[in-house]
Amino acid sequence: MKFHDFSIISKQFILILLKYLILFMKTHQKEEYLIKKVKPFNPKLIKNIDDLLTALKDCGFQGRNLGLALDILEKMVSDKNCLTVLTLSGAMIPAGMGGLISVLIENKLIDVLISTGANITHDLVDAASNIGHYVGSINVDDDELFKHRINRIYDIFLPEENYDKADIKLLELIKSSFDKKNIQVTPSEFLKSIGTKLSGNNILSMAAKNNIPIFIPAFSDSELALKLIKYDLYEGYNFQFDILGDVKKFGEIVKKFKEYGTIIVGGGVPRNWAQQIFPMLDQFDKIEKMGYNYSVRIHTAMEYDGGLSGSTFSEAKSWGKYSLESKHVSVWCEATIALPILITGLLQRLKII
């Protein structure tokens, strides 16, 4: 090792050591810890969901986090210079959250949707069957369900014939949108073409109408992709999807904004695909501001196993995925509870409903 290199390493080590020495030496007076008292929750003062979330900010645990999430979300969507990205994992559409996503799109409260393929497939099922999912139960014989060709998603039932209706509808949309032979297209362009031909308040249609791109990073991991393979084998449609093209397209969208925010439902591929854009841009474009400035995350994952879905915002900062001054909150709660409450509160606060 050259002496010059050793000097640089030594300086860095000393700076880190000083930082932690200052941190440990800093003490607080007792009064600094006891500034704000808890306000016991009083249901008599609650007139709407906005009131509920505002009151919860003075309580504790995940209730407080949910209240703080509304404040951050309001700042995010009210900032016209902020790109708002919704990442959607889990079976949100079968569970009845599709209408909520459509309202966000309709009111332009999100600019980009990044989803699993399954959620978009189920959106197509609902569009083709006038809501194709049924209230079911976990207390059921799954062998018997299979005999009836009923698919179970926890306590939601989806009859196989509704998948078939979506299959017929999708092929019809493809025939009216694409010529056969080699079809070179990004997944987001494909979804926009399909959504343009759909009617109703489904996600695909609303996103196309409002020019909001839908990205599906793990495109092949869904019933939607399986249908396209079927059309390749039996209908002669040879799709050549440009997966990397969507990454570059998302990067170009990001570069048009000065601030950035995420609404993260769950984790997995949609979450990381949204976050990885800053390390990518840092390699090629050296953007002025690095990382998301706002984020609200709803999840039930733990960080302790090192899994992607459980990684903290602080950990993501080390990668440059979130700015060092970012405002964020993580709500540990099942999404079908937290998300409708949070979005309803947001719509009330913005005077949309």
Structure description:
The protein is α/β, with parallel strands linked by helices and 353 residues long. It has a single domain (51-349), classed as Deoxyhypusine synthase (Deoxyhypusine Synthase, 3-Layer(aba) Sandwich). It contains 16 helices and 11 strands. The strands form 3 sheets. Strands 7-2-1-9-10-11 form a 6-stranded parallel beta sheet, sandwiched between helices. The chain has a 3-stranded antiparallel beta sheet with strand order 3-5-4. Strand 10 (292-299), helix 15 and strand 11 form a beta-alpha-beta unit. Helix 3 packs across helix 4 and helix 6 crosses helix 8 (160-177). The model is unreliable at 1-6 (pLDDT under 50).
Let me know the largest β-sheet: 6 strands, parallel
Helix-strand pattern, N to C? Answer: HHHHEHEHEHEEHEHHEHEHEHHEHEH
Question: Compute the gyration radius: what is it?
Answer: 23 Å
Q: Within the largest sheet, what's the order of strands?
A: 7-2-1-9-10-11
Looking at the overall shape, the CATH architecture is 3-Layer(aba) Sandwich
**How much beta, percentage-wise?**
15-25%
- What is the CATH class designation? Alpha Beta
In whole angstroms, how far apart are the ends?
66 Å
| Helix share bin | 40-55%
Mean pLDDT across all amino acids = 92
Class derived from helix and strand content: alpha/beta
* Overall morphology: globular
Helix count, DSSP H or I runs of 4 or more residues: 16
Number of strands: 11
What is the assigned CATH homologous superfamily? Deoxyhypusine synthase
Overall number of domains: 1
CATH topology tier name:
Deoxyhypusine Synthase
Low-confidence stretches: 1-6
